Amino acid sequence: MQAKRRRSPAATIALLPTWIAAIFIYIGTMVWSVRLSFTDSTIFPSSNYVGFAQYAKLFRTSRWLASLENVLIFGVLYVAGCLALGFVLAASLDRKVRFEAVFRTIFLYPYAMSFVVTGLIWQWILNPTLGIQASVRALGWQSFAFDWIVSRDMAIYTVVFAGVWQGAGLVMVIALSGMRGIGDEQWKAAQIDGIPIWRIYLSIILPQLGPALAASGMLLSMGVIKTYDLVVALTGGGPGTATEVPAKFIMDNLFERQNLGLASAGATVLVLSVVMAVVPFRYALSMRARKR
After folding, report:
1. DSSP secondary-structure letter at 146?
2. What is the model's pTM?
3. CA 1 to chain centre
4. Contact partners, residue 155, CB within 8 Å, separation at least 6
């Protein structure tokens, strides 16, 4: 006990810079941004408070509303697609296929790349004059068309494709580790009963992966809220506002339109979205821990 008491001051001193950085840099800048959202700040910060005028203006802006709709579509399809594809990949590798390590590396490799690189790769693949459409037409199918990236109605789905291609590997690794933790007794019992393999994964394995898939979904959801570089690299937010997202709206108002107050209001809304996404998940984890 005395040794622990002697180490306490040293540990506190060692952690002091981290606490200072967390309080003054992260929390301080967050509070500062919230404060600016209630002012009429433009290029430079202002102390002229205007109440909720910036928020009212924000939700009257068609571009902001379009960005919310786009991020909702992207978020639902991106998270669902990553979870589904990641689970399928994990189930495939769980069968102990040959060269498993090679396939696992190939499937996980896209997640190691930045969203900028992913966006540039898919921009080339989906470019009507350079990518899939041009390649298929070069083979003789001149009527083939795959120009989603320049279509206002379909462009957001190209962002989903790129995102799922990158994020599915994360879900695969987490789900595969969960599958490897399930005892062989369940497999033997199911095989004795003659249950098909696909039914074993859906009815027996999948329910036991609930916590792992929930954690994966939370990580993916956090990435959805701050999506910026993938959209900028892939579509630039276009055509028009077809792939506009809140983070891009904030950055454009902050650096191009010099509207600091409106950008801060948008950032505050995103912070509240993060809190609303994290709090239920943390509450569910705490309730699960209490039941145990």
Report:
1. -
2. 0.85
3. 45
4. 148, 149, 235, 238, 239, 242, 243
Closest C-alpha among 192, 161, 168, 164 to residue 93 = 168
Residues 62-88: tens digit of each pLDDT = 999 999 999 999 999 999 999 999 999
pLDDT of 1: 43
Give the DSSP H/E element, type plus range, for residue 212. helix 210-225
- Long-range (24+ apart) CB contacts under 8 A made by 43-48 are 43/258, 43/260, 44/260, 45/260, 46/261
Count of C-beta atoms within a 10 Å radius of residue 60: 9
Our measurement of the distance from residue 55's CA atom to the centroid of its chain's CA atoms, rounded to an integer in Å, reads: 25
140 alpha-carbon distance from chain centroid:
39
> Is residue 146 packed enough to be buried (19+ CB in 10 Å), middle (13-18) or exposed (0-12)?
middle
Closest listed residue to residue 76, CA positions, set 284, 250, 224, 193:
224
The pair of structure tokens assigned to 164 is 């799922």
Cβ(78)–Cβ(163) under 8 Å? yes
**Which residues are bridge partners to 49 per DSSP?**
39
Instruction: Spell out the alpha helix ranges (H) of 141-209.
Output: 155-180, 184-192, 197-200, 206-208
Other CB atoms within 10 A of residue 190 CB: 17
CA distances from 260 to 133, 238, 241, 252, 287 (A): 42, 23, 21, 10, 40
pLDDT at 45: 83
